[in-house]
Specification:
The complex is a heterodimer.
Chain A lengths: L5 H10 L6 H18 L34 H5 L5 E2 L2 E2 L7
Antiparallel strand pairs in A: 1-2
Chain B lengths: L7 H9 L5 H19 L2 E4 L1 H17 L10 E5 L26 H9 L2 E6 L33 H8 L5 E6 L5 H7 L2 E4 L19 E6 L2 H11 L29 E5 L9 H16 L3 E5 L7 H16 L18 H12 L2 H14 L5 H24 L2 E5 L15 H5 L6 H5 L4 E8 L5 E8 L4 H13 L11
Helix pairs in contact in B: 2-3, 9-11, 9-12
The chains are: A mainly alpha, B alpha/beta.
């Protein structure tokens, strides 16, 4: 497996919507490389014919009756928001 | 003996006989918190107003002579990763520092139905990511047995509170060992039920294919009572198994004749503390002399579990934690230039270092070009780990191991090296990946006075076998009665 570089860390940080100082970027690069190096031991195993397990329970596509039920009160939910106005969540301007 | 030192089942008898009231009991627990919490630092939030209201309600029922459930009027602490209506639910994170949940988790609804008393919300590693509770944004919880050592994690607050008699029982959550490992290190009983046994609705998500809520208690009987209260199907969680829930108190049988115990040789590796190994071997001999048969087994992929876990759990976490964006709840950073900048500033200021590290690891493992090499590979190895257990349980009823390779370590000892910290859960992550139930019960103390835990695992939905073996061990020993000096 490839070694992680500072450019990879910057790219992944952007994907994850995180930002780091140059010092933090260096530190994360070093730590993630060490962890990924350890994880590389999985390559000792031949898993060509092994099916993946995403979930341990033998269940798929659990559905329930399509019946409308009351949900939480809008004001109650908006009360947890950092900013809300006129029944909506408020965010910084998106479109110029 | 002060009331706070008793177990739920002992207290239930006293409440039923009207020897005591729940208000007196609740006061006794808060007095204890007043006396020792400065040392332990197990709680993030105390909920006195709610607790005394619940205690008074339970007392009305007891006074009337109603048939009261076993946890009615019993003071219980709740890990701060479980949503509690109208009460701060921080997950040990700054990003949820002001989050008052608008709803109750299903487990809370079930505890309310029992008439239980909520004492407060307990400290934890941020978003349950950690093995020492040092990753909390709020405080460092200390192990009641030695205040210079960690209580384990991530449910360190819930476990330390029970060990220090600051709660009668508590709820924790276990993703890769977060109930069992701290229970071992603090000398109490902690159980991770089978994945799907307990509804995760209202449990703030870390790794959805692994997370499970479970009880922490002073003995195995209380563990069974807590399981009876919280298990069961829930339409709000599609992964909560639609299976009948047995009465777990029926498994409290002090007899292991005919029970086959498997001892996995891979769990006694180099790096294991000699006192831990001796204590666990002694416990196994005790079970053998009580009538169980013991055989060595092999779980050959054990050594790959930590590597597998540290792909799967961070990958799921990176997706689950995408929701903390400063829009709908929690913290929002100021002075953002635009929406994307607000997301980045909010998340960078709101999350702690370990959470960021796992989000980075998970995002990397899922990113274009790396998915097959990491995530898919880990899912395949997960299959191999699970099939090791499937094969083992064709031959044995339960698997018995140490819970943790070492007793509690010093505060600060492993914080500089994330990988070293991750390896703390080496004996817990394999069964988590397989979705198995597991318990840790106290089985000894080191010479320096630190607790040692015995882990008992069973096949999915066979908690009853675990409880029977654990109860038998408890009936032959008095480790569960030992208390730290505070």
């Amino acid at each position: 497996m490839a070694t992680i570089t500072t450019d990879d860390v910057k790219h992944v940080a952007n994907l994850a919507r995180l930002e780091f100082s140059e010092e933090e970027t260096q530190q994360f690069t070093h730590q993630l490389a060490r962890i990924l190096d350890y994880i590389g031991k999985l390559n000792e195993l031949d898993t060509t014919d092994v099916p993946p397990t995403s979930h341990v329970l033998p269940i798929r596509n659990v559905v329930k009756e399509d019946v409308a039920e009351p949900s939480y009160d809008r004001d109650l939910v908006l009360a947890t928001a950092p900013a809300a106005e006129e029944g909506h969540f408020e965010v910084p301007q998106v479109i110029e | 003996m002060p009331l706070y030192e008793l177990t739920a089942h002992e207290l239930h008898e006293k409440l039923k006989a009207r020897e005591i009231t729940s208000v007196e009991l609740t006061q006794s627990v808060y007095d204890r918190i007043g006396a020792v919490e400065e040392k332990i630092q197990g709680y993030i939030t105390l909920t006195q107003d709610i607790a005394f209201e619940q205690a008074e309600a339970a007392d009305v029922g007891f006074q009337r002579g109603d048939e009261m459930p076993p946890l009615a009027g019993i003071p219980i602490a709740i890990k701060d990763v479980i949503c509690t209506k109208g009460v701060l639910t921080t997950c040990g994170s700054k990003i949820l520092g002001n989050f008052v949940s608008p709803y109750d988790a299903t487990v809370m609804t079930k505890l309310h139905q029992q008439g239980a008393v909520m004492i407060g919300k307990t400290n934890m590693d941020e978003f349950a990511m950690g093995s020492s509770t040092e990753n909390s944004a709020y405080r460092i919880t200390r192990n009641p047995w030695n205040l210079e050592t960690i209580p384990g994690g991530s449910s360190g607050g819930s476990v330390a509170a029970v060990a220090a008699d600051e709660a009668i029982c508590s709820l924790g959550s276990d993703t890769g060992g977060s109930i069992r490992q701290p229970a071992a290190l603090c000398g109490v009983v902690g159980m991770r039920p089978t994945y799907g046994r307990v509804s995760r609705f209202g449990l703030v998500a870390f790794a959805s294919s692994l997370d499970q809520i479970g009880p922490i208690s002073k003995d195995v009987t209380d563990c069974a009572l807590m399981l009876n209260a919280i298990c069961g199907h829930d339409p709000m969680d599609s992964t909560a198994a639609n299976l009948p829930v047995p009465d777990f108190t029926k498994s409290l049988i002090a007899d292991v004749k005919g029970i086959k115990i498997g001892i996995p040789k891979e769990y006694f590796t180099e790096g294991m503390d000699a006192e831990v190994e001796a204590s666990v071997r002694h416990a196994i001999e005790l079970l053998r002399s009580a009538g169980a048969t013991v055989e060595e087994i092999s779980l050959p992929h054990t050594e790959y579990a930590i590597a597998t876990y540290y792909i799967i759990a961070p990958a799921e976490a990176s997706a689950n934690l995408a929701r903390y964006d400063g829009v709908r709840y929690g913290f929002r950073a100021e002075n953002a230039e635009d929406l994307i900048d607000m997301y980045k500033k909010t998340r960078s200021q709101g999350f702690g270092e370990e959470v960021k590290r796992r989000i980075m690891l998970g995002t990397y493992a899922l990113s274009s070009g790396y998915y097959d090499a990491y995530y898919l590979k880990a899912q395949k190895v997960r299959t191999l780990i699970k099939s090791d257990f499937d094969k083992a349980f064709e031959k044995v009823d339960v698997v018995v191991t140490p819970t943790s390779p070492t007793p509690a370590f010093k505060i600060g000892e492993r914080t500089a090296d994330p990988l070293q910290m991750y390896l703390s859960d080496v004996l817990n992550t394999p069964s988590s990946l397989a979705g198995l139930p597991g318990i840790s019960i106290p089985c000894g103390l080191t010479q320096s006075g630190l607790p040692i835990g015995l882990q008992i695992l069973a096949a999915p939905f066979e908690e009853e076998k675990i409880l029977r073996v654990a109860y038998t061990f408890e009936q032959h020993t008095d480790h569960h009665r030992w208390k730290p000096e505070l």
